[in-house]
Write a structure and sequence with these properties.
Elements (H helix, E strand, L loop, with lengths): L1 H21 L3 H10 L4 H22 L10 E2 L7 E2 L2 H16 L1 H38 L6 H35 L4 H4 L1 H19 L4 H20 L14
Helix pairs in contact: 1-4, 1-8, 2-8, 2-9, 3-4, 3-5, 3-6, 3-8, 4-5, 5-6
């Protein structure tokens, strides 16, 4: 329904913006997420799993135009299209990441752009394939296929949902339950996880390349501080055994 189609992306946007506004600095954003992502294997899983979650959200949100306003988007790499909730979400990520850390935000922008145009492109391709089938049916004087339009879009949405579930699943089961031995950050703060996860995963790649090591050191100190705090508060994490909590 229309209410559901707009309600889900509105809710996601609300929790993401609210979480962004709660982080006073890039250190706090990365420090919160880093507490629950210390194991290298878990970090590697998130490096691929987090973009999969964001991309699948963009695919789903690209189906719903923004309400009340009609904005035409004409940018390189993708056909002309209307502004959707995917457009808004991508803009929010880039805006807040650049605000929190200009260096990281600017470096993240091309990656966010690639996620956006690929998500919109596959949505437009499915729409084009559907329209092509309808045109062929009409030219052949055949009865128009009423199922092709709905099933085509439905297949794409089912794929997006499946990838979204897969992205969460690989992080929760092997990532947190086996490798990390800690509760996923999303269960502590859903908005905090959605807002900081993409940047943390991206910075893992930058730090691996030796970029912005100063921020990595500051983040690690904050992670240690936050870890001691949550362990003292009774958090059941495997890493708590490595700290002197007295």
């Amino acid at each position: 329904s229309t209410l559901f189609a707009h309600g889900v992306p509105m809710f996601i946007h609300f929790v993401v913006i609210r979480a962004f506004l709660s982080f006073p600095s890039i250190d706090d954003a990365l420090g919160f997420y880093g507490v629950y992502h210390r194991d290298p294997s878990n970090q590697l899983i998130h490096f691929f799993g987090v973009p999969l979650i964001i991309w699948s959200l963009l695919v789903g949100f690209s189906h719903v135009d923004l309400p009340l306003i009609s904005i035409s988007i004409n940018i390189p790499g993708v056909a002309k299209h209307n502004a959707t909730y995917a457009t808004l979400l991508s803009g929010i990520y880039v805006l807040f990441y650049t605000y929190l850390d200009t260096f990281g935000g600017l470096l993240y922008t091309p990656f966010a752009y690639a996620l956006y145009i690929s998500a919109v492109s596959i949505k437009l391709k499915y729409e084009g394939d559907i329209q092509s089938i309808k045109t062929k049916n009409a030219n052949a004087n055949a009865k128009p296929s009423t199922s092709s339009s709905s099933s085509g879009s439905g297949r794409l949405m089912k794929m997006a949902v499946a990838l979204h579930v897969l992205g969460w699943g690989v992080q929760i089961v092997p990532g947190h339950a086996y490798f990390e031995g800690a509760t996923p950050a999303a269960l502590k703060s859903f908005g905090g996880a959605l807002s900081s996860a993409p940047l943390f995963a991206y910075y893992e790649g930058l730090w691996f390349l030796g970029l912005n090591k100063e921020l990595q050191q500051r983040t690690q100190k904050l992670v240690d501080q936050y870890t001691v705090d949550v362990c003292r508060n009774g958090e059941n994490m495997r890493v708590c055994a490595e700290y002197d909590l007295n």
